[in-house]
Write a structure and sequence with these properties.
Layout: H1 42-53, H2 62-70, H3 74-90, H4 106-119, H5 123-130, H6 134-151, H7 161-175, E1 180-192, E2 209-217, E3 223-231, H8 236-242, H9 244-250, E4 260-261, E5 267-268, E6 271-273, E7 284-285, H10 295-321, E8 329-330, H11 337-353, H12 382-404
Helix pairs in contact: 3-4, 3-6, 4-5, 4-6, 5-6, 6-11, 10-12
Subcellular location: Nucleus
Family: Belongs to the HARBI1 family.
Protein name: Nuclease HARBI1
Length: about 400
């Protein structure tokens, strides 16, 4: 079943609805002009005092308290405001006022939207914390998402070859894997549905209604490709095959960089690492399965697992930071949910690009997909099998000099 198509006026529809394709550059975020800094800080102190008076445990340091509620430093928050400022100023909808009757500032609108995404709390609860109504939270959050989706897309895209070479060099230095360009994993975004929309199409193996998110990440756990919008009832391998990324790789238009020649003169092409729920392909390396594996096979599995956990850890961090994706979403609009997921991924990348550190209390203590049994895809491409053997032999020769030393 194809994903729900999103209808939005005034915007061009993507040709491939199975993939949210975005573009980004590696340049640093532009500095915020002085005239845009500190335009409204009153909302923050009002918000902070309200939580302090309620007896809620919050960090004593103001900077950490800000990151606790909004996941970013104030500097990164200002940068995010600069991205959406023009939209939030130029198209103010009616009714966006607080209880004092004043129009909400850009900073307060961004804070409302980011608190909603970060906490996953109800619109009523978020509104009460900011002194606004439920409908205002809904309007503000969606306007923020629309603006970020359009204006922040450069924070999520497939890297250029120069950056790919940096990723490959890092992954080989850390894990010993030659020509590895990243890792892939997927997670379920759980939701409740009205009775009229409940169907087996959206019911996943854990008996939840859910939407899939597949992410490919680099050496810094930055998302460089995502696919969402597909129902959680399909398998991981089916999700991969439905993606635009799969089609590009199969056509030779992605993971098509320079081939590495191993010590045994075997060719090793570019690839990503994934779990056994994915098919073994020339550009997708999965672990060896079965008992009585040889020492070289076990060595490959250990290194491949360490690399592919980048994808798992990225999704765990994503859901920990933006809890709206971790909690059960109450009757979401399935046409809008992919946009919410995309913007959370953009915010995840912005934190990395701005070198923001998450508070330890934010990250999830467990796996991002608790309650789901492991899938095993038995599809093995002969060329993929040969590639895995080439890498395994290369790792064995790579280890030999170290053992002699």
């Amino acid at each position: 079943m194809p994903p729900m198509k999103k209808s939005k006026k005034g915007k061009r529809k993507s040709k491939d609805s199975s993939k949210l394709k975005v573009a980004r550059t590696r340049s640093a975020p532009p500095p915020l002009p002085p005239e845009l800094r500190g335009l409204d800080t009153e909302w923050w102190y009002t918000f902070l005092n309200k939580h302090a008076e309620s007896g809620q445990a919050i960090p004593s340091d103001e900077g950490e308290a800000f990151r606790h509620f909004f996941r970013t430093s104030r500097k990164t928050f200002d940068y995010i405001c600069s991205i959406v400022r023009e939209d939030l100023i130029s198209r103010p909808p009616s009714g966006l006022i607080n209880i004092e009757g004043r129009l909400l500032s850009v900073e307060k609108q961004v804070a409302i939207a980011m608190r909603r995404l970060a906490s996953g709390d109800s619109q009523v609860s978020v509104g009460a914390a900011f002194g606004v109504g439920q409908s205002t939270v809904s309007q503000v959050t969606w306007r923020f998402i629309e603006s970020m989706e359009e204006r922040a897309r450069y924070h999520l895209a497939w890297p250029g070859q120069e950056r790919i070479e940096e990723i490959k060099a890092t992954l080989e230095a850390v894990y010993g894997l030659p020509n590895c360009c990243g890792a892939v994993d997927a997670t379920h975004i759980i939701m409740t549905l009205p009775a009229v929309e409940s169907s087996e199409d959206w019911c996943d193996p854990a008996k939840n209604y859910s939407m899939f998110l597949q992410g490919i990440v680099d050496d810094e756990m930055r998302f460089i490709d995502i696919v969402t919008g597909w129902p959680g009832s399909i398998t991981f391998s089916r999700l991969m095959k439905c993606s635009g990324f799969f089609k590009l790789c199969e056509a030779g238009n992605r993971l098509n960089g320079p081939v590495k020649v191993s010590a045994e003169n075997a060719e090793i092409r570019e690839y990503i690492a994934g779990d056994s729920c994915y098919p073994l392909l020339p550009w997708l390396m999965t672990p060896y399965e079965g008992r009585n594996l040889s020492a070289p096979m076990l060595n490959f599995n250990a290194r491949q697992k360490a690399a592919r956990l980048l994808g798992t850890n990225a999704l765990t961090r994503l859901k920990g930071s933006w809890r709206i994706l971790h909690k059960v979403m109450w009757r979401p609009d399935k046409n809008k949910l992919p946009s919410i997921i995309l913007v959370c991924c953009l915010l995840h990348n912005i934190l990395i690009d701005c070198k923001d550190e998450l508070l330890p209390t934010v990250e999830l203590p467990n796996h991002h997909d608790i309650g789901y049994s492991e899938e095993n895809c038995e599809q093995v491409d002969p060329n993929g099998k040969a590639m895995r053997e080439n890498i395994t032999a290369h790792l064995q020769s790579y280890e030999a000099p170290k053992l002699l030393c």
